[in-house]
Amino acid sequence: MTELDTDRTAEADPSDAAAPVTAADVREPLLRVRDLTKDFPIRAGIIRRQVGAVHAVDHVSFDLYQQETLGVVGESGCGKSTMGRSLLRLIEPTDGTVMFQDVDVTAADKSTLRELRRDLQMVFQDPYASLSPRMPVRDIVAEPMRIHGAGKKESRARVDDLLRRVGLLPEHGNRYPHEFSGGQRQRIGIARALALRPKIIVLDEPVSALDVSIQAQVLNLLEDLQEEFDLSLIFIAHDLAVVRHASDRVAVMYLGRIVELADRATLYKEPTHPYTRSLMSAVPLADPHRERARRRIILEGDVPSPANPPPGCHFHTRCPIAQERCRVERPELREIRPGQQTACHFPIMEGETLIGRAEAIGADVTVVGDTGT
Amino acid sequence: MTPEGGGTATADQPLIDVRNLSVGFKTGGGVVQAVTDVSFTIERGGVLAVVGESGSGKSVTALALMRLHPKTAVITGEVWFDGYEVLGLPMDQMRHIRGNDIAMIFQDPMTAMNPVFTVGNQIEEGVRTHREVSKHDAQKRAVELLDLVGVPEPKRRAAQYPHEFSGGMRQRAMIAMAIANDPKLLIADEPTTALDVTVQAQVMEVLRDVRQETGAAMMLITHDLGLVAGSADRVNVMYASRLFETGSIDEIFYDSRNPYTRALLGSVPDLEGEHLERLVAIPGNPPSLLNPPAGCPFRPRCTERIPKCSEAVPELVEISDGHLSRCFRAHELTPLAEMF
User: Fold this and answer.
1) What average pLDDT does this structure show over B187-213?
2) Confidence band, pLDDT 50/70/90 cuts, at residue B72
3) Distance of CA A322 to CAs A318, A357, B265, Å?
4) Do B268 and A212 touch (CB under 8 A)?
5) A16 in B contact zone (CB under 8 Å)
6) Is B340 on the interface with A (CB under 8 A)?
7) Judging by beta carbons within 10 Å of its beta carbon (0-12, 13-18, 19+), is residue B213 exposed, middle or buried?
8) Residue A369 has pLDDT above 80, yes or no
9) HEC profile for chain A?
10) Cβ contact (<8 Å) for A75 and B198?
């Protein structure tokens, strides 16, 4: 029957269109990221000579506005986690700048960086690995405050308050992480991140390890906290549907680069990059009727190694509509519509579909679904 | 090849008929009831999806069908496969069925494969364990199978080791191994959970193709309701070791009569559609299986609970032929179709 892309336009959602992105355009960004790059050296031989580099993050630029959630989505090895960590200099970036308000994070010395950590916090994917098993929860949550000079009494009152705000009880503070379920541990991780009243939190796959009913609890909690604490969030995840629920704007990454960046409504309704389209068509819908009716493109092959990415557009080896130009020339991320940037020489525009384009140029693609009814 | 003797299977009988299966594990703190009184069937060529959250008993059910459960398990009930009662079979006959009639695909192909043998070797081993074929023919078959599951350059790849395969290719090789002896039933336990979404789509497509090719039935264990929607024809919903609802795919997704199933469907973030408002989170956590609370195990998290729910565990009630729900109020719940 219908194709994925057209299906989505038909189901235009009024609440979608009202996403608070237009207001962001007039405001000053809270965080400005320009050409952020991280290369990991590949060493070989007895003297560990550098023989190459993995370009984990490759000239990534974006802005983050106040009380906004920027989703970052991509498959494994796309550099999304490295990008998140480089922003906070948990990994030293190789190149590029990160400006937080007027402070250059990338050039900050040790003491400035420590001050910056008050404002820039992180929540990790694995709530089992990121909480010390030997510390009671109260100490885990209070630790950042102690490091930043809060007294014992003061921090105790705040910990109780924080635990309550993330949906736990103050008496839970006496327990150890192993006594909690995965969802509760993630709440503890969030409470710790909130302890210093940060302005920005980078969340790296915060709900991926959780069951779906618990995942919904944590997503709803984040939404509440964002409003309450006036937070800006960078929400890194591989799950497109989760990112859609959590984000105001979304960046799609592939092999270290942002290939598309747009506000949520536009990205999910009118994605222009063939990779974004392929990714969406690969996600199964939890609705048998729609799932049976849609036609989807199945990408060939795996994501290439970031140590040896293809020249030109990184995606050209798997792209169903790649042309000669894509093999030689890197497409820059450029604005093609207000609020939508794409890094593609031949973006899919105005009612076109990826399958339609691929068929029109006679590309050899695997399309499934569509029984012709 | 089936075990000698017994076997009175006929074509109209279900391929798998599980009756009142219970699996408990003895631990220091008492018996943990991982599966409680579960009954279901799988038709020949059919696809049954088993969904539920971690700890709901879905994987243990599958392992019990294969009799791959740990020795500490206490099992009661019956599992009829193709005319044989599997739980009572002597081990040598069980080995005939395992890998031959029933094959399993695991979540993590890296740990399910032997790192010191080539991928080709491991497929050949499966073929030669169950069939009298020459080494040469087994090698040929391994290459054919790799080709069938879409591994490019199958001849060269057969000589490689598992670590030389990407995650998606490894899972294809696992599928090749599983279908080597034309099994009647494939049990796939979270087969794509470790894979990226574009690779997941490829692997699900391969599974569809090989089922068409071999006519095998499939038991698909997953927490991903999207995968269920695209590939199953029947669904079992499990919660806290029990079957909570079973029905055709449409009955479960569009006419569920169980509060847990409904809550589960409501908590899935959607890629399309209008429900961009808050997700319907299920409050609380699943109960402990060691000392389950009295009454319905879902009661503390349920929006539809009534006083009766704390007194006894509800029985499965029939909604229509083949559609059962474990809820005292199954018949009173507003049909989903009338809610929107």
Assistant:
1) 91
2) confident
3) 8, 11, 38
4) yes
5) yes
6) no
7) exposed
8) no
9) CCEHHHHHHHCCCHHHHCCCCHHHHHCCCCEEEEEEEEEEEEEECCCCEEEEEEEEEEEEEEEECCCCEEEEECCCCCCHHHHHHHHCCCCCCCEEEEEECCEEHHHCCHHHHHHHHHHEEEECCCCCCCCCCCCCHHHHHHHHHHHCCCCHHHHHHHHHHHHHHCCCCHHHHHCCHHHCCHHHHHHHHHHHHHCCCCCEEEEECCCCCCCHHHHHHHHHHHHHHHHHHCCEEEEEECCHHHHHHHCCEEEEEECCEEEEEEEHHHHHHCCCCHHHHHHHHHCCCCCHHHHHHCEEEECCCCCCCCCCCCCCCHHHHCCCCCCHHHHHCCCCCEEEECCEEECCCCCCCCCCCHHHHHHHCCCCCEEEECCCC
10) yes
Contact assignment for A216 to B280 by CB distance below 8 Å: yes
**pLDDT the model gives residue B260:** 95
User: In this complex, is the C-beta atom of B9 within 8 Å of any C-beta atom belonging to chain A?
Assistant: no
Q: What is the mean pLDDT of chain A?
A: 88
Candidate from B168, B197, B229 with C-beta closest to A288: B229
For A260, half-sphere exposure in the C-beta direction (CA atoms, 13 angstrom radius) is 30
Nearest CA in chain B to A279: B198
pTM: 0.87
Instruction: Quote the CA–CA distance of B260 and A306 in Å, as a whole number.
Output: 43
Residues of A in contact with B225 (CB under 8 A): 212, 286
Segment A226-250 mean pLDDT: 94
- Whole-angstrom Cα distance, residue A220 to residue A215? 9
Give the model's confidence band at A15: pLDDT under 50 very low, under 70 low, under 90 confident, else very high.
very low
A94 touches chain B (CB under 8 A): no
Query: Which chain A residues are Cβ-neighbours of B263 within 8 angstroms?
Result: 213
- Residue listed under structure tokens 């009829």: B80
* Residues on chain B touching A289 (C-beta within 8 angstroms): 254
pLDDT in tens, A342-351: 999 999 998 8
pLDDT at B273: 66
| pLDDT tens figures, A72-130 | 999 988 999 999 999 999 999 999 999 999 999 999 999 999 999 999 999 998 777 88
ipTM: 0.84
**Which of A238, A286, A299 is the closest to B268 by Cβ?**
A286
Q: List chain B residues with CB under 8 Å of A240.
A: 197, 271
Q: Does A52 touch chain B (CB under 8 A)?
A: no
**How far A56 CA lies from chain B's nearest CA (Å)?**
17
A368 → chain B, closest CA residue: B205
B217-222 and B185-189 strand pairing: parallel
Asked if B230's CB is within 8 angstroms of A282's CB, the reply is: no
Q: How confident is the model at residue B9 (pLDDT cuts 50, 70, 90)?
A: low
